[in-house]
Each structure stands twice: as C-alpha cells, then as structure tokens.
Amino acid sequence: MIKLKQEQFLPISIEEAWQFFATPKNLNEITPEDMVFEIVSDLPETMYEGLLINYKLKPMFNIPINWCTEITHIKEKEYFVDEQRKGPYFIWHHEHHFKAVEGGVLMTDILHYDIGKWIFGWMAGKLFVDNKVKSIFEYRNNTLKTYFNK
C-alpha cells in the first residue's frame, strides 16, 4: 500500500476552507483538465456522510474509467474521508484534515491507496499510477495557491 501525505497552508479562514472543500462540485476546480474528469451524480450543495459520488474520467491513455467514492466520515471544519466503492483501485482511503492556524488554515491530505497485488498492478503502479497520483496532488496544490491567494 502506498501512503501519500501532503500539507498546505491556505491564507483563508477555517470557515472558507470548509465551505470550499465541503462543496462536492468544487472537486472539478482542483482536478487537472487532462484527466477529462466529470461528476455524473446529482450533487447536494454540501456533502454528508454516506454521500456517493460517481465520476467518469480518463486518467491515462484516454481510457475511460467509472469511479464511485463515498464520503464515510465527517467532522465539520476538522476533517472528512472519502473511500472508493467502485473503480480502479483495490483500496482508496483519502483523509482531508483542516486546522486553523495563525493567518489561515493548515490543510493535510493523507491518502492510502493500493492498485492490487497482481503483477500488472505492480507494474502499472511503478510505471504510471504512482507518478500520476503525485502529479494530481501537485496540480491541486498549485491550483489552490492561485485560487486562494487572489
């Protein structure tokens, strides 16, 4: 299993951070365009525990993938967790943590994922998936810097 942890300071209030990240449609704003990412579920204004979100995306080689995640845990203005229910990963567990600090918010992402133990999964991880996941988080980091430093 791979663990990816990323921290980012955002110069906004905890209320602004929570409002942005608790709104599921904002995921489109921080996803690279080359993933051809589309949310196909009807979305509420604010997420809730048990919310299932269905997506269509083309993360690599223009191959379409259906993906479904569930918001499994929420503590308002502190954290939420999304987990894959159907999709390309054997395990996808993504924690989003928020902490008010001087001058803004410290946001911490902790992602655990596994694409499977079979030989092609291991090769795909080493050749493509691990770097793709890292690049998505780098894109998100840079996009959030621009978005919230206006």
Count of distinct structural domains: 1
What is the class in the CATH system?
A: Alpha Beta
Q: What is the N-to-C succession of helices and strands?
A: EHEEEEEEH
Taking the sheet with the most strands, its summary is: 7 strands, antiparallel
Write out the strand line-up for the largest beta sheet, numbering strands in chain order: 1-7-6-5-4-3-2
Cα gyration radius (Å): 15 Å
- The counted number of beta strands is 7
Flag low-confidence runs: none
CA(first)-CA(last) distance: 37 Å
Word description of this protein:
- This protein is α+β, with helices and mostly antiparallel strands and 150 residues long.
- It has one domain (2-148): START domain (Alpha-D-Glucose-1,6-Bisphosphate, Chain A, domain 4).
- Helices cover 25% and strands 39% of the residues.
- It contains 2 helices and 7 strands, in the order E-H-E-E-E-E-E-E-H.
- The protein has helices at residues 14-21, 119-148; strands at 2-10, 38-39, 52-57, 65-75, 79-86, 91-101, 104-114.
- A 7-stranded antiparallel β-sheet has the order 1-7-6-5-4-3-2, with helices on one face.
- Strand 6 (91-101) and strand 7 (104-114) form a beta hairpin.
- The longest helix is centred in the C-terminal third of the chain and has 30 residues, at 119-148.
- The protein is globular, with a radius of gyration of 15 Å.
- The model has no long low-confidence stretch (mean pLDDT 90).
